[in-house]
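Appendix B, record 7
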Amino acid sequence: MTPARASLDLFSGREAISWALSAEESRALREAVQALPRGSRPIPDVGLGYRGFEVAWEGGAHARVYHDVIEYTESGRTVLLEDSGRQLEQRLLTGARPHLTPELFTAVEAQLRSTTP
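Structure tokens (predicted):
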């Protein structure tokens, strides 16, 4: 089993594009998530299209990353975190590049440049 898997939540009715993270990527990403400040805003319901990234770590921890909000669950407890610079989302997109077509990468990248969810 890999330390973590990331996926891009983009398609309705189709399996999400997912990829394994290396042990180092997994550890660094988890530390980055855990270092984020607490927030209070939930991930907005955006309907169809780009809905962010998900990361599932070995052992059950899980993060949903969309725009500047992260919903992080560990040991059955969920907290909302803020990523005002959207660094985590950009980091996940960069890691997704080898798994996406150039057109899909560009489309998701455009979503990340958007200032509104």
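Remarks on this record: The helical segments are 23-34, 87-96, 102-113. The two ends are 34 Å apart (CA to CA).
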